[in-house]
Amino acid sequence: MAGNDRPRAIADVSAGTILATVTIAVPPERVFRAITAADQIPLWWGADDMYRTTKHTADVRPGGAWRSEGKGADGRDFHVQGEYVEVEPPHRLVMTWRAPWDGDQVTTVTYTLEPVETGTRLTLRHEGFGARHDSCRDHGFGWERVLGWLGQFLAAEAGIKPSGVFHSG
Would you state the CATH architecture of domain 4-157? Predict the structure, then answer.
């Protein structure tokens, strides 16, 4: 993809960890704002045929709470929440992740943003799944989609047309 490398996620189910990465053709400051700001996340996190985040609240500081709410394609409400552990804009964000559909198990998500020649390389690590192999695998597929949505949103905003992706509307 021109200016937007395809997202990739690998779920190491034996370790209970997901590692995902995407390169986005905008600076780390812009990516950091897109993954933390309450007014940003509903703009890109979701697709009408799957689910869409409709509201996000965030107190972006260590110990601050965050929560995303939305609707599934089936019309059912959902939410996911946690708290920020480390906040180092625009390079690192560590937060807990607790979702009812995952038995309210607490896992940890770490975003690392590195400036690269073509923009920003975002590396995401989601860990703490333990022996819950199916949950780890499912979250791996989910993160690959989510990073794709983020990359498409920021590329479109920057006026970059990702190659090989057709997006109507």
Answer: 2-Layer Sandwich (3.30)
